[in-house]
Amino acid sequence: MSLSSSFHLLSFQRKVQDAMRDVERTLEIERRPRLASDVDHAYGDKYALVDLTSNVAIIAYANCLERLGIDVKTLMMISSSIDGGTNKSVTLRFDMSTTWEFSKEVGVDVPAERSWEDNEETRGGGDNSSSKKTRVMKAINHVTEFHWKVKNIWSISVYSGTAFEDKKVVKSRQCETILITQSKGGISGSTNLPPIELSLTWFLEQIDANELASKFKVDIEAEGTKTPRRNDAVQRAEEFASDLRQWCDRIQHSFIARHLKSIVQAHNPAIPKPQAHTVERLMGVKDQYSLFNPILPLMKDEGSSSNEDDVENKQHSIKLRSSYIDDDENKLLLSQNDMSKLLNQHIQTLDVAISGLCTNWSSDESECLLSSSEAALSLLIGHLIDLSDQYTATMNYVESMLETQLVNAIGKRLTPNDLDKFVKYHNARLLSPIPQPFSHAIRCPGHNPVGLLTIESDDGEIECIHTHSREVLKSSLKVPLSAATVLELTGNQYLHGYMNHRFGTSSKRHQLVARARQFSSFIMIVGNMTNASTLDPKDAVIVQNKDEVIISLLLDELPTAKEFKDAVKSLSPEQQRFARAYRKMQLSSSIFGVCIVQIKPQLEALLGLPADALDKEMKLTQDLMELFVEYQVPSDMLSYSGFLENVTTQEKVSNVKDNVKSVLDVVNEEKEKQLKSEQAKTEMAMEGMLQGIAANHFVPEMQECAAPSPMYKMAASQAKLSARHRSRGIASPMQLHSVPSPEGFASSLGSPAHSSISGDVLCSAVASDEMQRIHHNQEGLERSSSSSVPSSQSVLLPTARGVDFTLIPQILDEAIEKCAQSTALRSTTIKTGHWSRSRQENLLTNPKQMQLSNDDTKRERNKAFDLLDALSRSGCFPIAYSDLHVIVAITHCFDKDVMSTVVCDNVNPIEKLECSTLILASAVHGVPARKLIGDANEVQRLAGLLPLLLQSAENNDVNTDENAAQEG
């Protein structure tokens, strides 16, 4: 997780600036301490600052706890019991209970708000005088009140270990008050909140019982110490701060905000009286006073002096150890006297606030439910929450300084993409041979490329991945197309090692991209190496005529060798053998293979044509592929059928063209027959439909309707025209505007139309002479497809012997296990995801992107397999014009992002990736890691950083020299 997402620097700085006014009033005017980031300091000063602020936090906690009743004698007693060897934990506990007891029932007359006047007139004696009397009358409600005697008790106690019965109560309050309700129901007899506990063990461990001084200090030499912020000591301190905050927060919400509030709200007399103290006022009592927070990451400029007179500790018995801050190495920290002044200021503000509460709130002896004790409790736990939050924020501020300084040094926040660019630049200077982009042109020597094969990564921008590559000795590769057909490839073979890295949850998308040029084509096969000489084909596709096929790659990380060992060490022997066997299978099957088969040179060899004979025969090549894929015509029917030796290339090509034309004529005749048959069926169906409705129409209308409509004639004529144009290999004028795809056209003809062309009919289209197999030209065999021509610095020379690709992951796994620094290096499997294709239907339309479903990929796979079956004569004819690319991937995993890895973990990812890269490059090239480093200075530098890796490489060199001497 990034630091900026959990820490707000500006908010923290504002809080510190507000506290600086109290600091300036407390210290001398001539000394103005500042935030640590504003003072020039060294890296070691950050450790001293963490020690100082942690000890100040411990004393501040103790100041608050003392006012909760935990006095010095209690702390000394508990700390001495721990040092005495009891090794028992010390727990602070808060308990609360409330009982309701019914007292009496009282009737109360409550005047209503409504009133009215009653006027009465009386007359006198003889003088007939009269008088008026006015009476004001009000309604009175008779209400029954229920009086309850409520007894509320809460206490804070301390106990050791599990001896709760021997607890020592340090503070408590018991009050009895009368509450009045207007209903007798809904009142429970008693309420006991669950106890709220806090372990004080760590807190007491940080106090020296002899000196009564805090003794927190980060062990810089400890194995778990990474930075001033990331170490075991600070981690335990933050855990206590978090527990302390949670303890206070539970008391504030469970006891004050909910329990006391529910009791106060239950008081409902018929004639209410105004309450001087409310729960809301009790909750906000901390905001009525300005409490000083002494946990401040302050430093002073070097050379500034302070008053050396000792300052008396005011009402607190825990002090700072002078050896931590008053030495020559910590000149930038505030002195012990200055810190004592700040701690005294903290005590003074606490005492002033508590004294004010005692004056403004009811005393403890009163019957009021809310008294000065509850107000002091609310004040202290609220301030403890502020102290714990301030300590955590101060530790984050120290780490934020490191991040800010690193960003200022570099000029930006680094991302995985930035580091990836640096690694490519660094590897180009460090390694020999250097990693190359996985971008390989599909070509024959001396010819223009027919396509391009790349693996790209998308991390904000798309670019080719860089791999460690070498060409290995040619060997026969088996590709099973079916149970009866096994393809044999004898072309070039390449081994690639891809070093992937992942920071935190970020991940890069990878994709395999194959692009073909116009009037060019090739076959791409993807799968996994099952053994040293077999590629298991998962999918295949024909890429032609500016097609762009994009296959998403899914990189799955396997557990590291160390994780695997730790997981199986407690299993039974049978379970361990099972796990090892399955992991061995996982490693072996993690080898991803991509095979490229060039169609045109293989067609030349298959048909008995000289090399480059089909270079300018674009239409002939397309017709051959159509016959092989769509109609599965045997190659014997199309190959060169001559017997003379001194025959020119053009004559051989003409012979093949004639054979192709003969087969196409048969195909087109069958299409014409089927078209006429379908047309006749349509006309007969229309005539039958018209005869059915003729009884309701006049004869002239019926005759007019019986004739084919102009639209029908145009459709029929268009179908004939399309068939004639298709027989010539071109599109009709109508098709140039709305031509369907080849797949759509084939599906519109229907499968029965294709199946009706029997093999006998196709055989009758060629010469009756027996076809003989013409061995491919020796010159064509010597041609081999190759990748794009690399620079002189990165020429890949084949090794003297072949490579068992399935052993590479196991070699990598063993090398990773030997290097303890590479525990985050994981073997990675590569699998294919969804497919998409960009295709231009004809020369006049724009390319369209289309997602390929599972059915689409299966159809493309079958087409490619049909063509491969034809090119190899069902596996009997080896394919020499192929390239096999085997990719082995490993991933270096970092738990955090780039900046957090450097700042929080104090890890240089460049050095970690150097080790991982050397392990991978050594396995790919088959040479010791030391020989891959061209610069002697770099060898010396890496020998100190990676002794295990380079030492093993040196031992391998010695063993190799000894074996060579013995053989000599």
UniProtKB/TrEMBL annotation:
Basic and acidic residues: bias regions: 111-124
Region (Disordered): 111-134
Protein name: Uncharacterized protein
Source organism (scientific name): Stephanodiscus triporus
